């Protein structure tokens, strides 16, 4: 193994970079703090007046250590549904935590946000939580407190394959897979949503607050003329002692949470995948120095080896084909003791053995060829893959085309698509075009995908895209006889660039669940380690069969 990395000496450039990255992180954390307020102070006070805990308070009491909850999709729905007053965190909180030292997915409705009603993105978020539980064979705990579908948008959440009904289909599938599911009804549970807790293995209900029925009192009166109150219709005692729908009656939130912990404490052990892990060793360099490595402008170069040196144990790697295809780094390493295979874009300009210059961040035929072989090796050896994305795309031009860049790119995409070992992706900087696909973007089923605060996710860079869009706009307007002055052209270009940059921002991506979370670069090791521990819970790894490989 070789030790990589060099000491970073404080200078004007490194300090400027550090300040810039910390400011980005501060802004992201500020947005997250605001989002964690849910429906706001008044809504929280009203909620607590009923003797109820908030969604995040419930989770904090449920898990072993409140400081070790890995919340995901915190910014879901950020900037969306503004015409309805917004939906902070899409009215649902979910993530991964330990209950009696057992990893679990925990999903909690936030009733301070529109009474916990489901928006379209809420359904997508809940489906992602179930997907994580299914892919990694994790028990899942539902803390239910929801008024059901947000009716003004029912057409966008009800009928399609990836809409509300898929939740209950997944309940059934998880049950057949042997994945434990526990649901606590801690507030309303209405209409189709009533199936979620009742299709779980066991359902608890809080007396006086929890209720479950297919139709509430108002709808019952409108439908059949029967006059009845909600408690008599589907309250805790009715559904537990008369209908037998629920299994445990709880006095309050605290007792309910303690009962869930008791149930989980008695789970048996399940087989593991058996990924290799030894005693962890910290990197030789402080992970916080990653702030000083990343340039303010994501187009500018930097040395990816230096970043890797601040993530891997003892800053050591076994590099595969070190002198070939240098714009992609492929190496075996350990992160918090876990063995991993790293595929990372080198952002520095490199030279081939023949002395040809290659641009950092670009995938060439040789680097695609190398990455393909390395990915196949990791599948052969049952080693999880970590993709560190900072890619501007594949090489273009006559030389690249004549050299078969499409063929070599297809080979790499094939290997990524058919890889069966767990994949974790972190978007360190740029994630442009087909490079996003080859480096295991969201469409390629990474178990988890994260982004740094400075990440850019789009079909191409902002400057190139805005230039193309401006040209299209000018030609459209010129057909109608409108001539633009240079000043008008510049204003239009600036407007296009601003809009494009906003939509390539990681906050925009996180709001739409294109990534699982925006993470602090200094905590990269922690996130990778918990993801590998989660992935290790699923022992079922299919046979690797890449199909037809382009040669």
TrEMBL record:
Transmembrane segments: none annotated. Keywords: Transferase. GO terms for cellular component: methylcrotonoyl-CoA carboxylase complex. It holds the Pfam family Carboxyl_trans. GO terms for biological process: L-leucine catabolic process. GO terms for molecular function: methylcrotonoyl-CoA carboxylase activity; transferase activity. It comes from the Bacteria. This is Carboxyl transferase domain-containing protein. Residues 21-279 form the CoA carboxyltransferase N-terminal domain. PROSITE patterns: COA_CT_CTER, COA_CT_NTER. Residues 289-536 form the CoA carboxyltransferase C-terminal domain. It comes from Stygiobacter electus.
